[in-house]
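Protein in question filed below.

…
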Amino acid sequence: MRISPKSLLPLLFLAACAGPSNQTTPAPAEGTVICTTDDARSVKVAEFLDRYATGDLSFADQLFTEDARFYWSTNESSFGLAEWREGITQQHSVFKEIEIIDRVITTGKYPDGITWTTVWAEWQALNQSTNERSSYLIHLAYKWEGDAVVAEYGFFDRGRYTAEMEAALGG
């Protein structure tokens, strides 16, 4: 049986975040990040992704602040929630049967006090213009302030994605 390298990525992350399972483990050292997968923030992001896949963007209002910023494959430029909705609406006009599979969602509070929820997954969909399946490995990071996300960082093959979108939209 051949093991795919992409299937190991979530396992490596979980191994890095997981500690021993016995109850006598001493308190974590200062600067340690404790990752959880069943906390309220991880569950909220999972629900958001489930709804996004179906085209329901209404849950974004419960997840993001009004002035949230989105950074896709860059730290240098960003866009806001209105532009995100427009782009995702276009995405759903190009692709159908969107799925986010093999996902690992974790939340951790970092030594600088910032809480992040991170997602490792594979995004798959059917390109309606070519009738071919598209697949991208994705990494998403959600930066929290209180109970809302103020920034989403998305890492994926943006060049290929942009080319697919432009070809389908005639751009």
In short: Residues 11-16, 18-22 have pLDDT under 50 and may be disordered. The helical segments are 5-17, 40-54, 60-63, 81-94, 158-169. DSSP finds five helices and six strands in the chain. The first strand starts at residue 35 and ends at 36.
